[in-house]
Each structure stands twice: as C-alpha cells, then as structure tokens.
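Q: Second attempt. The first request was missing the SMILES, so the protein and flavin-adenine dinucleotide are both included now.
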Amino acid sequence: MWQKDNDFIIGKEVKEDIETEILIIGAGITGVTTAYNLIDSGFDVVLIDREKFFNETTAKSTGKLTYLQDLKYQEICNIYDYETAKLYYESQKEAIRLVKKNVKENKIDCSLEKEEAITFTTDEKEVPKFIKEEKILEKLEVNYSNVSDTFKNNGVKHLISVKNTYVFNPVKYLKGLLKKIKKSNNIRIFENSIATKIRKDDDYYVAIVNDFEIKTKKIILTCNYPFFIIPGFIPLKTYMEKSYITATKVDKNKKINGITSNYPTTSFRFYEEKDSKFFIYLSNSSKICDKLNFESNYNDTINTAKKITGKKPTYKWTNMDVMTNDFLPLIGRISDEEKDVFIATGYNTWGMTTGTIAAKILVDLLKHKKNKYEKVFSPSRSMNLKKIKNFAVNTLSSNAKAYVLNLIKKNPSWYKNKALVTKEDGKRIGIYFDEEGKKHKVSNICPHLKCFLNFNEVDKTWDCPCHGSRFDVDGNAIKGPSQYNIKIDETNE
Ligand SMILES: Cc1cc2nc3c(=O)[nH]c(=O)nc-3n(C[C@H](O)[C@H](O)[C@H](O)COP(=O)(O)OP(=O)(O)OC[C@H]3O[C@@H](n4cnc5c(N)ncnc54)[C@H](O)[C@@H]3O)c2cc1C
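A: Got both inputs this time. The predicted holo structure:
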C-alpha cells in the first residue's frame, strides 16, 4: 500500500571500504529516524540498507500512531508492575509528539490525521480483561469511553475508545525525513548494501557490507531482526508474528481505527489520498510457528474485506514483526560487554511509535545523555520467565512444532504450482514445481538457526517459521535474519 509511494532514489551503494564513527544498519522507521536525530550532531554517520530504504516492515504496516495498543498495559503489569506500564505509556505518547513535531518542522505531507482509536472484542470471555485495562487507563489519567459514535457493530461485547491518536502514511513521512538527511554534511546513505558479518578489531568494529569493509567506532542495528551479533541471545527473547492485510477503495473515510483484543488479531483503519479513500483491513495475525496455512489465511482476509466493503481489495500484502515475550521492546546497548553495539527491535507490531522513541533513546545513549526509558527497554534486562505464560510455545518449542506440522501438511502429489519437502542423500530438500511444472530445488534448512522451512503458497517463498527469514523459489535470501541463500550447491553456514 505505502510501497507505491516509495519513489526515493538514493542511487548509491557501498562499493569501497569506508571509515566512519557510527554505522546504522537498516533504514526502516528506526534507522531513518535515528539518522535524522543525528543531523549536525558532530558525529560522522553512515546509514545503509540491504535494499530500498524503508521498503520492509515499515512500508507494510498499517501506519497507526497510537498509545491504545490492544490490552497492552495489563500485559506489562502482569509481568512487571504499574510503574513499568506507565513508562511504556509515556514512551508512546512522547513518540506521537515527536512525529507531530517532525512533520510540522519539515512540512511533511504524509496524511497525518488525529482520530479515534478503539480496542474491541466480540468475545464475552474477554470482557473482564477490558475492565482490568480500564482500571490501569484510569490510573494513567487516560480519557477513554466505552461507546463509539462511529463504530456500530452488534457483535461487539465491549470496547474502549480514545479520541487523541493519529494515523499517517509512514513512507511519505520517512521520505520527508530522508530529504533532510540527504542534505546534511555528516550523514552518508547507501541503498542495496547488505551487512553480512561484524567483527571486532581492537577498539573498533568492521562490518562486511557488499564484500567491502566499513570500519566504525559504533554500530547501531536497526535491521528489525539483529541476527548476527549473538545468535542465541535474541531468538530466546523474541518470536515472529505474521499478518495478512488488504486495502479496498471505499466511498467514505470514517476517521476511526480499531483492533481486537482476541488472538489472532483483527485490525482496521481508513486512509485518504487525493480522490481515493481506502479501508485497510488486517486479520489472521498469528505467531508464525502456529499457522502454516498461508493460502487459507490470506483468502480468509480477502474474503472478509470483500464482505465488509462489498468490493474486491486493490492492494493485498503480508507483513511480519518481531515480538517479545515480555511485551516490551529491546532498545539500547546489546550487552554490558559490547558498549558500542546498539540494537532496537521487538516492537510487538507497534513500531511507528516505538521505532520513533527508539531513535531518541539510541541518540541519547550515543550522546551520554540520561534517558528515562533506558533501563526498562534495555536488551540485557532479565525477563521473569515464570510470569511469561507463552514462553515455551513462543520460542523453545516452535522448532519442533513447525516440524511436526510441516510433516502432516506435506503434500506428496507431483503437480504444478506446488511444493514438497523431501530428503535427498540424507539432506532435507524443498522442491517447488512452477506453473510449467519446472522444478526449483533448494535446501529446506534455514541457514540462520537451522529451522526447517515452510512453503508460503501465496507469495511463493520458503519461509522460516522460527524467525521469519524468507527465500525465493530459487533459494535467494529476500528477508533476514538469514543473510545466506539456500541454493542447493551453496548452502552457506
Ligand atoms: C501487519 C503489521 C502491521 C503493523 N502496523 C503497525 C501500525 O499500525 N502501527 C505501528 O506502530 N506499528 C505497526 N507495525 C509494526 C511496525 O511496522 C514495525 O515494528 C516497524 O516498522 C519496524 O521498523 P524497523 O525500522 O525496526 O524495521 P524495518 O522497517 O523492517 O526496517 C529494517 C530495515 O533493515 C534492512 N536490513 C535488514 N537486514 C539488513 C542487513 N543485513 N543489511 C542492511 N540492511 C538490512 C531492511 O531491508 C529494512 O529496510 C505493524 C507490523 C505488522 C507486522
């Protein structure tokens, strides 16, 4: 949807060795906003992306800027306490203020609109959770209501509505920030520049990018899934969630957005540009280890959007985000030992706000300034695993579960436009038969952490159920964490 507005051409990629003070890897909302905050900072900065800037998770989001995030505050209270939930709430409100300020100062035309947001449920059993959430919202002095003048639906059992949240077009917003970055004297930007390794040499780091070396004092990983530093560290704290989204032309913009509390999640908003109005509808949002039937999830989302609007969707896409087991993002120094390596990830599908506040936290840390969110969002915080209900399901068992489901779903019939998983010479092989019946053979093992890959019938890709790497039918890596392909003769470690 927003990708159609992504016409910003940088025209430069890393083609030689480079030296810098700060290297930012990944130009989604986090990387671009971090670079923006570093304009005229006195630091020499390099910002790179493996493909076009902000064309990944950020461009595939629904573009809501809200602090009403399903039933988030009680989830944080359940694991931590009210004070932590309050800090999270304040971080989201501050992020909205920052986006508004950036839009105003740079006169960015990104359809930023104030509007009502609701969290609702059609399941009676969810209602006690809403009552609990309302108690926290009251303590936070949030002005909410249990009725909406705009959203009328007989099936709804309960809703929470607030009137002061925002929506925008994230790509147009980031284009606005990037224009200013491009004019700065201290920031160099490179697209089509993939980082594959990082090593430490004395008191600096070297990142291998397009087979060249970028020598840097500090590294900031804003690549959504910062895989290559300590592979075992991040996966245990995170899992991936995938959603299916449609945008359908409608006659009226109702200026309201909503999300359900039930799992799998459903969410909606409207978007207006020039003469067109769209209803954006997202559903079947679920952990990627839970749901392997991409095609039926996709069709279900499309059919429901059709039922609601009476029209065929104009745009259809899927998106994935990094989720954390304790509902808080991972932002800051990667560890006490590696003081000059920073990460920002785990936004739990609320990265428009959390990516914005992450950029503020990261720049405060670089400038040795205090930031009140530093401790609660620290990537090295200890998570209280006893209180995290779904920990085993989300991480430890996802591998085994995906494997079993994959075996059950294995389709042995040899016909066109289908894929199967088999073994050859003791190795797991994935074979896709295209429309003409031509075989495309790849390794079925993700080079990242050795999970078995599932075939995504909608996008015709091999997807990793553990951490979201994706490969095309010929084995080329198209989305991280894996930086390596799965071509049959060259399965890199
Ligand atoms: C379905 C869905 C809907 C969502 N809707 C909303 C919403 O309405 N509101 C909200 O607040 N949040 C929403 N989110 C969450 C939000 O989209 C993400 O949290 C956010 O976009 C993440 O931003 P990012 O900058 O961390 O990552 P990205 O936008 O993914 O940027 C990371 C960049 O790093 C690059 N990269 C990766 N690896 C490398 C490498 N090795 N070398 C160089 N570059 C690399 C990628 O190409 C990419 O451009 C949604 C998420 C999903 C899944």
